Amino acid sequence: MDRTFELALTFAVSAAIGLLVGTERERKSTAKAGLRTFALIAILGTACALLARALGSPWIVAVGLAAVGLTLTGAHLVDARAAATDAGTTTVVAALMVFVLGAMNFHGERTLVVALGIGMTALLYFKTELEGAATRLTPTDIRSMLQFGAVSAVILPLLPDRSYGPYGVLNPFHIWVMVVLISGVSLAGYVAWRLTLERKGLLLTGLLGGVISSTATTFAYARHAREAFHTPPATMVVILLANAAMLVRVLLLTLAVAPTLAPKVAIALAPALLLAGPALWWNFRRAGGETASGTDRMQNPTQFGTALLFAAFYALILLAAAWLSDVVGSGGLFALSFISGLTDVDAITLSSSRLALQGSIEMTAAATAITLAVTSNVLFKTAVAVMVGGPALGRIAVPSFALPLAGLLGGLVALHALA
Questions:
Q1: According to the model, what pLDDT value does residue 294 have?
Q2: What is the DSSP letter of 125?
Q3: pTM above 0.85, yes or no
Q4: Per the domain annotation, does 134 fall within a domain?
Q5: pLDDT tier, 133 (very low <50, low <70, confident <90, very high otherwise)
Q6: Rounded mean pLDDT, 393-418
Q7: Which of 18, 211, 212, 329 is 20 to 30 A removed from 179 (C-alpha atoms)?
């Protein structure tokens, strides 16, 4: 009885996956397979897998797969009118995939089958949106993705996973993992920025700018304010959001590298995020619905030169932090964090997290170092807004940044009070 019930459930899940994909294909008038056909194909895949196991002949699955492909291809070719307008390749491949999912389901991969079935249906359904996204990507954008693939899938596996140098902190594999992590986050923000280029508002522009580079976003919009391309309140909305996104990014990077350190970093950064809200709300109200059209083009974040420079800078910060912690103590680490944070927060965030994970520095000291780097970075952005943006932007930039800076100070006090 249990065996019968399990088989019935397996066939039911296969049929449901076929019905799901078939429902999407039913909407396409030229498709030669719809709701019922896809359900039957999924069931056929499960039945072929069952027979293959029972008879000890895996060729049954291969023959069934070939039969599905040939049947649908033939059905499409005999309809000259349909063949002239649609090659039918997508429907044939989807049918073959549904057959394979039915076979996989029989072999106990039910969760994976359901996930793949839903993902495949979404891929088919959002055809128009995906094609539109592809047309908005430039050759430079495609090269960015290919370069990230090379950085992550080609270079990373070739690097040795062992420690070198003083204090044993220079591990080529781990250093490049950090490069991949930073490049991946920045690339995701860059692609999202490109895909929403024509319809970004101030809020989305600020958030995506912070994911890609809050420093570049601050410089770009400070210039816009000086050139009167955007009003100072609209400029501050973008800059404040970019820096708020930077705070979230720092927290997520810490969580990815050293999860046990993340709660302490959250204690230090949360007040700054909360206090950025009133300044953001005040500037957004004064912006009066202004849009962010015509923004500067962001730089490709996955260039090999950029990756190598970050790897070198990260390794240098990692080595300097370990040496200063050993020779000078936490004070030396804090000074390094404040200075390096003026231009880059990622390197000190990753190095402090890595050293804390290895036990080379205490968790509270690591969280303090990260917070000091963020504080110096926000101070640097304030100076950029004043000096690049001109007096009009400077008059609202200083009080707008004062609240998150006060939050960082309060966060440091809370961090050490709870330590």
A1: 47
A2: H
A3: no
A4: no
A5: low
A6: 92
A7: 329
Residue 252 near residue 387 (C-beta atoms within 8 A): no
Domain count, the chain: 2
Residue 326, judged by CB atoms within 10 A of its CB (0-12, 13-18, 19+), counts as: middle
pLDDT of 238 over the 50 cut? yes
8: tokens are: 């019935």
Q: What whole-number distance in Å separates Cα of residue 293 and Cα of residue 313?
A: 34
Domain encompassing residue 204: 139-417
Q: Which of 233, 212, 319 is nearest to 284 (CA)?
A: 233
Q: Do residues 73 and 216 both lie within one domain? A: no
Largest CA distance in the chain: 83
Whether 355 and 222 share a structural domain: yes
159 & 12 share domain: no
Residue 182 lies in a domain: yes
242 and 332 share one domain? yes
* Side-chain-side CA neighbours of residue 76 (13 Å): 21
Q: Residues 160-171, buried b or exposed e (16+ Cβ, 10 A)?
A: eeeeeeebebbb
